[in-house]
Amino acid sequence: MVRLVATLCFVSVISGMASAGTPVAIKEIPPAVSRSISNYFPGAKILRAERDTDDGQTTFEVKVRYKEINLKLDVNPQGKILDVDMVD
Q1: Which of 2, 5, 45, 73 is the most exposed place for a label (fewest CB within 10 A)?
Q2: Which domains, from first to last, does the chain contain?
């Protein structure tokens, strides 16, 4: 039982490490991603971005400042906004 718990903890740690994104310079964000953010959040300032690949699917996690609110956006390379979360 102890071995099973230890194995599950190890797999959980490795999975968490694999999901960490790769930083992307703001100027290297795909134009479709930037355009989509500008359309849905006019005047938003992009603060930082990361490229994530999970199960062969690439997404961009972009942190923006919009009307005094910090948001984390998950956007696919074609510019479709997949998720929006408020963050500190």
Answers
A1: 2
A2: 22-87 (3.10.450.40)
